């Protein structure tokens, strides 16, 4: 529901049957801290990134959360959100289709900062304009950063060996 606070919660192995399904769905104005969403799935065919999603948020704050091995996206972010310090790995699991972090809203205005996205179909997938994307790291994804539209984004540094870029807002792909 809107205005909820979730701290230390987990949603594991939930199985949906509809056109969309989520482990944790937080309404507008919610705060989600140190929660985990793991191995959520959906039996509806064909599979989409909105089926078996770990987290869904809109106009909310998500801090230090983990989403892994969900059939769809690790976290689906609509608009006006802060997502910081998360670990999103292995999403799009088991013949699914998903990103670690997926920005889907038509309005954007999200801040995506200091997250780790690894081994997903897509690391950070941005479908809407007007977001701030800084200080993230991505590795082992089929595509580390799939970003369209006008964004405010730190440079994406492809790093092997010593990092020589000193930009404090940089995103990394390694």
Brief rundown of the structure:
The protein has no helices and 23 strands. The chain is an all-beta fold. The strands form four sheets. Strands 2-6-10-13-16-19-23-22 form an eight-stranded parallel beta sheet, with no helix packed on it. The protein has a seven-stranded parallel beta sheet with strand order 1-5-9-12-15-18-21, with no helix packed on it.
Question: Helix share of residues?
Answer: under 10%
What are the secondary-structure elements, in order, as H or E? EEEEEEEEEEEEEEEEEEEEEEE
Q: Shape, please?
A: globular
Q: Output mean pLDDT.
A: 94
Secondary structure tally, helices: 0
- Note poorly predicted spans: none
Radius of gyration: 15 Å
- End-to-end CA span: 38 Å
Computed structural class: mainly beta
Question: For the largest beta sheet, what order do the strands appear in spatially?
Answer: 2-6-10-13-16-19-23-22
Largest sheet: 8 strands, parallel
């Amino acid at each position: 529901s809107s205005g909820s606070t979730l701290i230390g919660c987990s949603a594991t192995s939930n199985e949906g049957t509809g056109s969309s399904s989520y482990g944790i769905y937080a309404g507008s104005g919610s705060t989600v801290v140190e929660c985990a969403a793991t191995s959520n799935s959906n039996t509806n065919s064909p599979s989409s990134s909105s089926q078996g999603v770990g987290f869904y948020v809109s106009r909310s704050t998500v801090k230090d959360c983990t989403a892994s091995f969900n059939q769809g996206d690790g976290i689906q972010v609509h608009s006006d959100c802060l997502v910081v310090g998360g670990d999103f790995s292995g999403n799009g699991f088991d013949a699914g289709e998903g990103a670690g972090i997926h920005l889907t809203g038509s309005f954007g205005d999200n801040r995506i900062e200091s997250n780790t996205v690894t081994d997903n179909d897509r690391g950070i997938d941005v479908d809407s304009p007007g977001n701030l994307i800084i200080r993230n790291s991505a590795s082992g994804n089929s595509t580390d950063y799939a970003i369209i539209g006008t964004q405010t984004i730190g440079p994406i540094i492809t790093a092997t060996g010593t990092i020589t870029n000193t930009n404090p807002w940089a995103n990394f792909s390694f």
